[in-house]
Amino acid sequence: MKRDWTSRAGLLMIGLILVVINLIGLNLFFRLDLTDDRVYSLPDVSIKIVRELDDPVTITAFFTDDLPAPYAQNRRFLRDKLDDYRAYGGANIQYRFVDPASSDELRADAARMNIPPVQIQVVEADNVQLKNAYMGLAIQYGGEFETIPVVQDLSTLDYDITSAIRNLTRDSKPKVGFLTGHGEPNPYQNYQLLTDELERNYEVMTVSVEDSSLSERPDVLLVVAPRDTLGEAGLRAIDNYVSGGGRVAFLLNTVDANLQMGQARPLSVGLEPLLETYGARVRSDLVMDEQSSAVTIQRRQGFFNLAQQVQYAFLPVATNFDADNLMVSRLNAVMFYFVSTVDTSAARPDGVVVEPLIRSSSRSDVQEGFFMIEPMMQRGELSSGPFVLAAAYHGKFPSMYTPGLVSPNTRIVVVGDGDFLNESVVGVIPENIRFALNMVDWLAQDDALLSIRAKDIEPRQLPEVSEEIRPWVKYGNMLLPVVLVLMVGLWRWRRLRTREIILDKDEVVDDGVSQNGEAGVHHPETEMEAAKS
To answer: What pTM value is reported for the model?
Structure first.
């Protein structure tokens, strides 16, 4: 029997089904995310943090209403993301959207939480105008707050919100120390963006050597581009730190190169025996790579000096990363400044594991001994690569000064360049900063945040095709949907036509049925009388 859903009972049944589905939805949260990086789903670490909250976290989104594209999409993406946090955090996650332009009190609240208005371009009456807008986020917990001044980079939104919640809810931040006193660049001047980013999740400090020990014992020690010899006191201080389970990043220049002068010479600060004790070594060479950045040089043309950009092989742009290591697996490209090779074949202590992180391209080579770094010098064919430019070591490291003393399981990173983060040398390169932040997270064993530092939210583009195939792709996209619609319509028409023919045959058969319902039964007497008449 065919059910009539327009009846009163049918409508009541539909209503009950909808009520049951809504009741299930209140207690069961499910999302199907088919993107490669699961950009529309909360990472496991975010879910874990919000589920373990003891007290409510209040999130206030200071967002101007009626924003034009693409800022309106950012607002919608943020609202969906906060819905996810509330779904997993329950009553301990509360959020609201407010427009500071609607009242002086809200503007004062935004200013108190360090959320400034930003200028955006809007098109009104066919004119491009600048307009002040608020697009910030304030996260409050226990009387304290963390701020995201501008929600603009959606790829880091998970990381920003989760790290802010975690910073508010934990007792203290881990410490990151920059070693100083040996000609190292000033971190607050030369690595300003890096230190600003680190201070969001770590307590950043400078560390010096005092009587064969460090003035402070940070959770992570960064030894970046020392120029002066460390001496025995410095080596003992680092060795004692590692022996106690300390984690160190060595970002070293083993060649002193001057691009303006076109000269380079080997540089040693005395760290070689300590690194060799740990199974690491940075060679005194320079990597040349055809996959490199450009430099601007001045050329004399008659009476004029002309600026010309040329590819410079000593500024390699590395894109060959270890796909299994979270420190580098999501990086796109890192630019180095006169980088040396890390020798991963050196003898290592038992139990120490090395993982090459970054390699040059196959079209690379090295110079060592005598360096010729002038930009216009012909290099010849570069084809000896790839070479390891950075490596990670983990395990139990023996002490250089105390025989038999072995550290607990700890981690070390070695990079053959100490200048790739120096803003006064290479400027601000976001991927370089991201590599350094990932490095600190890995050394601090903060794999949870490392896994969500950035997700790729980029439109998928069609691959390049040849000129011969391009018209087929173009007209195929135009005509194929129309052809498919016509074929579906034709198939449906044929199906309906077939049903009509079958129904007509059924009607003919029904007409042949006798009054008493006995179809196909012969009655001889009736047939004879009909024949006589």
So the answer is: 0.73
